[in-house]
Amino acid sequence: MSSGDDRGSTLDPIYDRLVTREEYESNLARVAADVPDRSRGLFGPESMIWKVSRENAVYLTGARTGLLQTAHPFVGYALEEQSYAPNSRARRFRSTLLFMSRMIYGDVPTALGAARKLFRRHETIQGVLPANHGPYPKGMTYRATHLGALLWAHIVIWDSSVMAYELIVGKLTSSELAQYADEVRRFGVLLGVPPEAHPRAFSEQRALIRDWIERDIIGVTPVSFKMAQRLLSSPGPLWTLPTQTWRAITSQVLEPKIARQFGFEPDSLRNQLVFKAAVRSLRLTYSRFPPVLRYMPGYLEATKRLQGMQAPGPIARRMNELWIGEPSFFPSPPGRPKTPPP
């Protein structure tokens, strides 16, 4: 993409295009056709994507995911101006958790339905960049179906998830990482990323993240900086210490160049000590957590569904209301009540 001036960063042509509805539907059909048992979803309980994503430990790097996503100007401006109200952190969290859970753990119709709804929402989002950002010039029209933006928002989720998993739960083997990378590549189709445009090996995915940051294709913009301040601000006096701890952790898991642009201090001894203490504490205690605390609620509901329970029980419904504002992560099958009788 030509920026109109020489700022030393260009986006690879393979990623500098829009994903059309026809292309999206074609790739989606190919992925769905390869599923042997549609009731178990696109991946199933034996998949690495279930194994990693079910862990609540992945929230350790949740801020890293959000900040890296918004450091792509298309993603940052789209979120700020188009998708959500500026102060609706809870709304965005609930929406993201619901869509991701349905695509990962839902049966095939549920996963495809959530994916299509998300892609159609993205088709409606566009705007104009107010300033130059890397290879993207001021006045350029951004669209949420831009392949480079879709790929970036997608791969940082899974990269951060593996980072958190290996910090708290345990190291993944090379064969597990290879399986995970293949599944992530298939998941990318749900978001609009064609398989041929997606890095194959996990090491290639991580290398792309480093490369785009080093080449300034990704960088902190005024809008992403503002969103970071909201994301990591304390909602009240009781949250001051947890928020400070989370900021210290985030300073250590972000790439140093981006961390400094966001105003973090990755070289701070205090931040390093807080990070090491938090990781050490979680490593010692996390495996002892009961399933309701350790695992994602969408995962727990999906496993119950595969065991024959068609709707969550009263306690699960109340927990789901807290997480997503709805009694269930998954739509009820036709002809069945949405919730069981009390």
Briefly, what is this?
The chain is mainly α.
Count up the helices.
16
Uncertain stretches of 5 or more adjacent residues? 1-8, 334-342
- Please state the CA-atom Rg, rounded to the nearest Å: 20 Å
Say how many strands there are.
2
Sheet having the most strands:
2 strands, antiparallel
Q: What is the mean predicted local confidence, pLDDT?
A: 89
Strand content: under 5%
Overall morphology: globular
Q: Strand-and-helix sequence, N→C?
A: HHHHHHEEHHHHHHHHHH
Oligomer: single chain
Distance between the termini: 58 Å
Residue share in helix? 55-70%
Q: By helix and strand content, what is the structural category?
A: mainly alpha
Spatial strand sequence of the major β-sheet: 1-2
Structure description:
The chain is globular. Helix content is 58%, strand content 2%. It has a two-stranded antiparallel sheet with strand order 1-2. The protein has helices at residues 21-33, 48-53, 62-70, 73-83, 89-105, 108-123, 147-168, 174-191, 202-214, 222-231, 240-253, 256-261, 269-285, 291-294, 297-306, 314-324, and strands at 126-128, 141-143. It is mainly alpha-helical and 342 residues long. The chain is built from 16 helices and two strands.
